[in-house]
Amino acid sequence: xxxxxxxxxxxxxxxxxxxxFAAVPPGERVRLAKRxxxxxRAREGTSTRGLxxxxxxxxxxxxxxxxxxxxxxxxxxxxxxxATLPLGLAPxxxxxxxxxxxxxxxxxLGIESTSFRNGLPHESVLEMDVLTGAGEIVTATADNEHAxxxxxxxxxxxxxxxxxCLRIELERVGTCVEVRHVRFHxxxxxxxxxxxxxxxxxxxxxxxxxxxGVVFSRDEAYLTLGRHSDRTGPTSDYTGQQVYYRSIQHxxxxxxxxxxxxxxxxxRWDTDWFWCSRAFGAQDPRVRRWWPRRWRRSSVYxxxxxxxxxxxxxxxxxxxxxxxxxxxxxxxxxxxLGQTAAFLHWFLDEVPIEPIWLCPLRxxxxxxxxxxxxxxxxxxxxxxxxxTVPGPGPGEELGATNRAIERRVDEVGGHKSLYSDSYYxxxxxxxxYGGDAYAVLKATYDPDGRFPHLYDKAVRHx
Length: 462
Ligand SMILES: Cc1cc2nc3c(=O)[nH]c(=O)nc-3n(C[C@H](O)[C@H](O)[C@H](O)COP(=O)(O)OP(=O)(O)OC[C@H]3O[C@@H](n4cnc5c(N)ncnc54)[C@H](O)[C@@H]3O)c2cc1C
Known about the structure:
With 462 residues, this protein is of the alpha+beta class. The protein contains 16 helices and 18 strands. Strands 14-9-13-12-16-17-15-18 form an eight-stranded antiparallel sheet. Strands 3, 4, 5, 6, 7 and 8 form a six-stranded antiparallel sheet that branches. The longest helix is centred in the middle third of the chain and has 14 residues, at 187-200. The chain starts with 11 loop residues before the first helix and ends with a helix. Flavin-adenine dinucleotide binds next to helix 3 and strand 8.
């Protein structure tokens, strides 16, 4: 990302992207043509032309001296981590699913177990090149002429432009992560432990570099505390017959300890898509034995879900049982820490989904990011739940459970990610997701509407 020359030399990938943009007649919509996705909302059938991103999937430079990397916008974290780990480095936040791309995580708000100390992926971006609706690539930083785009890009989901290259910060990591799974019988006690870890970066005298958690039920919940380490010794492998999330559960009062290579720790949730692979039988030992190892990854399960949606297999099965299609409840929400235990109790009472994933986060920056206005200085807990619930009965509205969750999240001062189904009215949406700031950005960077509006993408499935 050399910004010194007057006319920067474009990479082959950028040239291909620009040419494919120019080939679309003015006034027509454009979209990304990517090989992978982690988006969950269905998209209406589209005739929109896809832009060529094939040359924008690599790692350009990893600089161990400045602890930075220059990365193409469609580079997956799997490829990025493969380039940084041999140097003992990792991005500050590595989302759990291998095929999430750096551009996708920055525009769609990734999160991970370092987020309690490193914030969200966009907060370790130093600068980024963005293809705007005008068909040009601009460089946005926190304090240049495109600082408004830099701050408004997170949570814009490609509706203001596409990141083609990002310079991001890295941090040093060990070869392994020592983990402790600490059991709680009470959700208030678990939240108190999160507050302590966030404040002190330690728990019972041991340093904490990573923290996330799983709620199996009201009286069985865990925090998993990880610490960078160069310890040698046997490490666990959850890409084989063992399933990671099952390794967390235990009865005794002492934490269960484990050692994973940093590589395996980073991808611990990908192998079984957290726990969602059980829907395909992949956790049944009789099936797992025959399920090829290379197909035990989130991108394969994602394709299976997409295929099911296309052919309507699950819906037809429900219909044969006399039931309406089940309602998909696949969401991540950010709840203020002080409200988290109450929210979880409400959720466990109202929504028949378990386990539930927890991940504390705190913005790194002192300023808000306008399209996802979490409060600086406040600790939130990302609460993730990904399953289905019975569909609406006669006279009930579509999406009843998702709507109830939206209302509850709003009542407790939380925020909801937009990668999945949303039901907000336009006015509520604008109030929650920085509508005024967004309108100005949209008029500046996509005046001809070459990309869909954020509301149309998030709520109307554009
Ligand atoms: C079941 C499930 C679980 C999830 N769990 C996690 C999790 O644990 N941790 C986590 O961090 N995230 C999680 N996510 C959310 C995920 O990080 C976001 O959906 C992210 O946007 C996906 O990035 P992607 O690269 O796969 O993009 P895609 O899924 O391909 O696209 C997502 C959106 O981003 C836009 N986009 C993609 N690339 C760019 C770019 N370069 N520039 C601008 N816009 C772009 C697309 O237009 C699209 O609107 C989860 C999502 C699902 C469905």
